[in-house]
Design goal:
Shape: elongated
Structural class: alpha+beta
Distance between the termini: 24 Å
Strand order of the largest sheet: 6-5-15
Order of helices and strands: HEEEEEEEEEEEEEEEEEEEH
Radius of gyration: 26 Å
Length: 250
């Protein structure tokens, strides 16, 4: 009877974790540049003497779905969508370099260019534009600014977005940003800027999460959890009946 409990119990636990992943994806269906998190489960034999037929369920998160999201024209000058497999470099909360596909650029009161509250990295660090200036972005990520009341000849380049094109899949961090895997020394890997990478100004890339598929998956996972709990309940009832039979005095 414990063989049923091993499978159902571990399956229910990992199904709860899968539901959390699906819920996270569904909550970010409207987040620009979001990459859906993937989840998979596999059967793992229980190791130990006398347990060759016991099997548990192990969950893995193999990575993220890196398929592109839909491009939507916004008309806002500071909105950019990365073309191809390009990623935008930003400064994480710990000061390290990380990468994102979000492109809603903002300029704060100090002239600092940021995305979702994180400074955008340029060729020499975080990009700062003159206060009160009008900003435009080129296809190569160059940010140009012109002071208020100045003529068009005063347009100057104030920085260039650092765009990178990784040759392998990035890893998602707990902060939602992506990074390269650590090297053999356990150090963070910083990608070099890709001079050929381009952006589309006045547009944003949407999330690659399908709301319909996420809702169907959520219902499927919920029903699977109910089924596993039913198996546990049935195994408990069978165990009680077996104990009653053994307790009968002949």
């Amino acid at each position: 009877m414990d063989r049923i409990l091993y499978t159902a119990m571990s399956g229910a636990k990992q199904t709860m974790d899968q539901q959390a992943v699906v819920s996270h994806n569904l909550a970010n269906v409207s987040t620009s540049g979001f990459r859906a998190q993937l989840h998979a489960m596999r059967a793992v034999p229980v190791q130990g003497e006398g347990l060759p037929t016991r099997v548990s369920v192990a969950a893995t998160t193999p990575g993220s779905d890196f398929s592109p999201g839909p491009i939507t024209r916004t008309g806002r000058v500071l909105d950019v969508a990365m073309a191809g497999n390009a990623w935008l470099a930003v400064q994480a909360d710990d000061g390290s370099e990380a990468y994102t596909r979000r492109g809603e650029l903002q300029i704060d009161g100090d002239g600092l260019v940021s995305v979702a509250g994180r400074p955008v990295i340029g060729e020499g660090g975080p990009i700062i534009v003159p206060l009160g200036s009008s900003v435009t972005l080129g296809a190569d990520g160059t940010i140009s600014a012109i002071g208020e009341g100045e003529n068009p000849d005063a347009l100057v380049d104030v920085g260039r977005l650092k765009l990178v094109t990784p040759e392998q899949n990035l890893l998602r961090g707990d902060d939602g940003l992506f990074r390269m895997p650590l090297n053999e020394e356990g150090e963070a890997v910083v990608l070099a800027a890709d001079e050929e990478a381009t952006v589309v100004s006045g547009a944003l890339e949407g999330s690659n999460v399908s709301a319909v598929e996420a809702m169907v998956s959520m219902i499927d996972v919920a029903r699977r959890y109910e089924m596993q709990m039913k198996v546990i309940s049935t195994a408990d009832e069978n165990a009680q009946r077996a104990n009653n039979l053994l307790s009968i005095q002949g």
